[in-house]
Design goal:
By secondary structure, this protein is of the alpha/beta class. It has a domain of 196 residues: NAD(P)-binding Rossmann-like Domain (Rossmann fold). It has eleven helices and 13 strands. The relative contact order is 0.12.
Length: 341
């Protein structure tokens, strides 16, 4: 008799940006998914990604252990995607990214089921950034409870609903200038959301060794400025750059960081002072997309598919010849000096 290899998988944070792609990837492979989130009504749209009854949304809050336990009933595997970029009320870095991850891992250990934990490149217990410290603490708590867990650390994730390229493309539509914090020299390795989701699904199915941390970056390493220039090229707009020093950005962030929906927080300024790329150790040890057999897609291949709406005439804009020049040959003066093109 054939053995049923399809699993019941609980996905915490499945209603978020990455979550919807992970749910889709798992559903396409025939698994049954329970999407655990604070607001199940925000996850109902995911049900159409599978067959009748394949995807179910349930209420769970990482601050309440009993709700975590209930969401994991009868599960064969658990995926934790919960993470925040800024604190809001009771939703703190410590509660969600450290303590919450530990509670999920303890639940997985109690049931003897596997776990995939989403972290981030830059997770470091000694980091001055609370985001990075709690990501590292979350990893440590997961491994303490489930030594065979798979931890994935992506660089900045891009895709149709991302809050990075969409935000700056919309800013370019409205503003004649774009800010470059720290001169825009920080390096990133942007990774396509579908590639990360595929890696999560592969990890759930045991295609990579557990007990390891995998760092996921795209094929291109770009500075913040280079990413802005690429975005401007695709939306066919030319804008000036304003160089804002880290110290000035930190001061501004303190003023607006506590406001609802603040565009910048002091912790984010701290993160921007460190490169966000795959480490040499991960490359040397094969703890990258190479372990999954995935060839990550480039920005060039994906950004035009969803940033076209920010062009002057949207999708009806006439195709422009490729222009390798910088987005603007001169930059406005920032705090000290002028940002070089």
């Amino acid at each position: 008799m054939a053995v049923d290899t399809k699993k019941q998988i609980t996905v915490f944070g499945g209603s978020g940006f990455l979550g919807r792609y992970v749910v889709h990837a798992l559903a396409k492979r025939g698994h049954r998914i329970r999407v655990a989130c604070r607001r199940p009504d925000l996850a109902y749209h995911l049900q159409i990604a599978g067959t009748l009854g394949q995807i179910q949304a349930v209420q769970a809050n990482l601050r309440y252990p009993w709700s975590i336990d209930r969401a994991m009933e009868d599960a064969d595997h658990v995926v934790n995607l919960v993470g925040i970029l800024a604190e809001a009320g009771k939703q703190t870095f410590t509660h969600l990214q450290a303590e919450g991850a530990g509670l999920i891992a303890e639940g997985a250990a109690k049931r003897g089921i596997g776990m995939v934990q989403l972290s981030a490149i830059g997770a470091d217990a000694q980091s001055p950034s609370e985001y990075a410290r709690t990501k590292a603490e979350g990893e440590a708590r997961v491994f303490a409870a489930r030594p065979d867990a798979v931890v994935l650390r992506p660089s900045i994730v891009f895709g149709m609903e991302d809050q990075f390229f969409n935000r700056f493309a919309n800013m370019a539509r409205l503003s004649p200038v774009l800010p470059l914090i720290g001169g825009g020299k920080t390096r990133f390795q942007p990774v396509f959301v579908n590639d990360v989701a595929t890696a999560v699904a592969d990890a759930v199915e045991g295609k990579v060794a557990g007990g390891r941390v995998y760092e996921l970056g795209g094929p291109n390493v770009l500075t913040f400025r280079e990413m802005m220039e690429e975005m401007l090229r695709i939306v066919e707009r030319r804008r000036r750059f304003v160089d804002i020093s880290f110290s000035r950005a930190a001061s501004l962030a303190k003023l607006v960081g506590k406001l609802p929906g603040a565009p910048l927080t002091p912790d984010q300024v701290e993160q921007l002072q460190h490169d966000n790329v795959v480490s040499d150790a991960a490359k040397r040890e094969g703890r990258t997309f190479e372990a999954f057999g995935i060839s990550p897609r480039t920005l060039d291949a994906v950004l035009p598919t969803y940033l076209v709406r920010f062009r002057p005439q949207g999708q009806f804009s006439k195709p422009q010849p490729h222009d390798d020049r910088p987005a603007e040959d001169t930059s406005l003066p920032g705090d000290r000096g002028i940002a070089k093109p």
